[in-house]
Amino acid sequence: MKTSDASGAAAGRPADTGAASGRPAEANTATVSNFIRQAIDADLASQKLAGRTWAGKPGTADVQRAGQADPARIRTRFPPEPNGFLHIGHAKSICLNFELAADYGGRCHLRFDDTNPEKENQEYVDAIIDSVRWLGFDWTFPDGESNLYYASDYFETFYQIALKLIEAGHAYVDSQTGDEIRENRGTLTEPGRNSPFRDRSVEENLRLFREMRAGQHPDGSMVLRARIDMASPNINMRDPILYRVRKAHHHRTGDAWPIYPMYDYAHPLEDALERITHSLCTLEFEDHRPLYDWLLARVAETGMLDEPLPRQIEFARMNLTYTITSKRKLKALVDEGIVSGWDDPRMTTIAGLRRRGFPPAAIRLFCERAGISKASQLIEMAVLEQTVREVLDPEVDRLHVITDPIRLVIENMDPAERIICEAPRHPHHPERGVRRFELSRELWIEREDFAENPPKGFFRMTPGQMVRLRHGFVVRCTGVDRDANGEILQVRCEYLPDTRSGTPGADSVKVKGNIHWVSASDAVPVELRIFAPLFLDAQPDAGGRDPLENINPESKTVRTGYAEPLIREAKPEQQFQFERQGYYVADRFDHTADKPVFNRVTTLKDSFGKKKG
Ligand code: ATP
Ligand code: MG
Questions:
Q1: For residues 371 and 413, is the Cβ–Cβ distance under 8 A?
Q2: Among protein residues, the one whose CA lies closest to atom 29 of ligand 1
Q3: Motif 'HIGH' region: where (predicted)?
Q4: Distance 153 CA to ligand 1 centre (A)
């Protein structure tokens, strides 16, 4: 377990190891209990949450309500650090926090944990807000309460609380170097050693800490530490660092602060100041819980916090195969130009999944099914894709699109002839109406639907065989034309005019194959972007491996296909099922009616098993 360190590059976050709030309407089936719900139920039953008062958000009209009874039965929060875009692991935490709050008639806060200025910026703040909204959650309430918070709004309060802790003898300024602090911290088997500065007087500590705040001491020259116990078996309790000197520009507070609080100091205070009742976090914070509780109890003694104090509960991180759930490693993919940006459709960021065409309802359903656990979870990507299919199948219109075209000529049709064919937009929803497209002498079919020397059991287009052109006619393949090099130029056939789909003659000829097609007379060229996993290995960063060394060089293929004319109606972000091909979405940014651009969301069936064989 990594502990706080004086240089504090990571602001002391543990290393990754492994009134209804805006809850979307379609949720939820039966609620499954879990250890978090049991803990909340017990807290509600014990009455310890009774009589809670409203914090009243400082700086808003809401501050008027401070001290009134809190309308929320419980409060949770989702506390991202704005140092990157959110990923699928965060979606788990978002769904958990917002849905629990909604289920209990509580409220969930969106709080930016922006205490580490060098890595954070406004672009990330905006992207995170966008992602949480898109997932379907909201932090504003009919009574006007808006629960969007920034840790940086509490910097002055954090500072005042630190002064109180110093006065009460619970904190001191340590002038050891970073290396000395590390050396004296001890190990898992050896206790730490007290700093020679541990017994500075309250007056001296106050003076030095005020000087730190005034910018009179350089980076790394001193830190504020809690005075707890250098011999504690829990290294986090060995006088953890609360504040460091960092003369860095902050994207919200500018140059106002030359000192920044550490995660272990800021996070519990943020929770308590917002009257969070249940602070849900991932398991790597378990060893920090004694510190969380110690700090809040000491601050409460000074009268700076209201009881009841929040309670931290840990759950296992959610991990997914073919995915990395670390903002730092995702950032490396962006910085190295391996993907086009944080929202590249191959990225398992929420913005990437959105651009890939994964519906938010599918992500929520997936997170719900993943459940809550204390044991680390690795879920198959195939499970997420299956959930996407499940959500899209009943929802989206069907289309014919040829993704790898070869020309088919109907010899017994006049070049000027146009037959208008019809197909339902959705096979199970006739009320959605029909789509119409032409059939003419020249069509496009999928290259793989033709075989000159077919394998056994091939029921599609092959010389002499009959096959149905979906929503059209039965045709009999008569042969192929080749170019000078012997390459197939086009396939030839004759159609059987009495076999039109939807007419009594349709069944007069029995065929085993049924292929899709579009007519050269009305087809629309469409750019197709087809994705495979970004990584070659299911666990790209297992065992500390660098995921950059595990990149699939063929994760993106771009092709031109031909689509039936309805594609012109597609709006950016609209999904379709391209019949027999897969689910596709009109690209959020690049698609236009004149120049359609589609991303493949997923195949119609699981393709993960196949890839390895
Ligand atoms: P990263 O390493 O990607 O930066 P983090 O946990 O450091 O992740 P934060 O922005 O601090 O990122 O996380 C916000 C919240 O999301 C935290 O409560 C964190 O525990 C939770 N979270 C992050 N990753 C996962 C995950 N894979 N599964 C469940 N919850 C997660
Ligand atoms: Mg992190």
A1: no
A2: 317
A3: 80-90
A4: 21
| Residue appearing with tokens 């000491």 | 298
3-state class of 425 per DSSP?
coil
pLDDT at 612 over 60: no
327-356+360-394+526-563+570-603: CATH architecture? Beta Barrel (2.40)
Tens of pLDDT, residue by residue over 439-496, are 999 999 999 999 999 999 999 999 999 999 999 999 999 999 999 998 999 999 999 9
Q: Which residues are annotated as a binding site for ATP?
A: 81-83, 87-93, 282
- Where are the alpha helices (H) located in 214-371, listed in sequence order? 263-273, 289-301, 327-335, 350-356, 360-370
CATH class of 404-523: mainly beta
Separation CA 604–CA 433 (nearest Å): 23
Q: What is the spatial distance between Cα 343 and Cα 10, in angstroms, rounded to a whole number?
A: 25
Ligand 1 atom 27: residue of nearest CA: 89
317 is catalytic: yes
Q: What is the pLDDT of residue 377?
A: 83
In the structure encoding, which two tokens stand for residue 436, read together?
A: 């119409």
475 CA distance to ligand 1 middle (Å)? 57
Question: Which ligand has its closest atom nearest to the C-alpha of 86?
Answer: 1
Nearest-ligand number for the alpha carbon of 81: 1
pLDDT single digits (tens) 305-325 = 989 999 999 999 999 999 999
Q: How far is the CA of 119 from the centre of ligand 2 (A)?
A: 11
What are 539-558's pLDDT values in tens digits?
999 888 999 999 999 999 99
- 448 counts as catalytic: no
What is the average pLDDT score of the chain? 93
Q: How far is the CA of 282 from the centre of ligand 1 (A)?
A: 7
* C-alpha separations of 176 from 5, 191, 193 in Å: 12, 18, 12
pLDDT, tens digit (0-9, with 9 covering 90-100), for 71-111: 999 999 999 999 999 999 999 999 999 999 999 999 999 99
CA distance 396 to 570: 11
Residue with tokens 């579009």: 518
What is the pLDDT averaged over residues 233-246? 98
Per DSSP, the residues of 458-498 read --SB-TT-EEEETTS-EEEEEEEEE-TTS-EEEEEEEEEGG
**Residue ranges for the binding site for L-glutamine?**
113, 263
Structure tokens at 443: 């069509």
Query: How many whole angstroms separate alpha carbon 276 and alpha carbon 77?
Result: 7
Average pLDDT over every residue of 182-194: 97
**Torsion-angle region of 107 (φ positive above 0: left; ψ -120 to 50: alpha; else: beta):** beta
The ligand 1 site (C-beta within 6 Å) comprises 13, 16, 79-81, 89-90, 92-93, 113, 281-282, 317-318, 325-327
Which one of 92, 119, 282 would you pick to mutate in the ligand 1 pocket, going by the greatest count of ligand atoms within 8 A of its CB? 282
How open is the CA angle 273-276-281, to the nearest 5 degrees?
Answer: 115
C-alpha gyration radius of the chain? 31
- Pairing state between β 442-446 and 405-410: antiparallel
Domain residue spans of the chain: 327-356+360-394+526-563+570-603, 404-523
Q: Which residues contact 210 (CB under 8 A, 6 or more apart)?
A: none
Query: According to the model, what pLDDT value does residue 56 have?
Result: 80
Backbone phi, then psi, for 253, in 5-degree steps? -100, 0
Q: Is 512 a catalytic residue?
A: no
- Cα dist. 437→111, 152, 375, 421 in Å? 51, 58, 54, 5
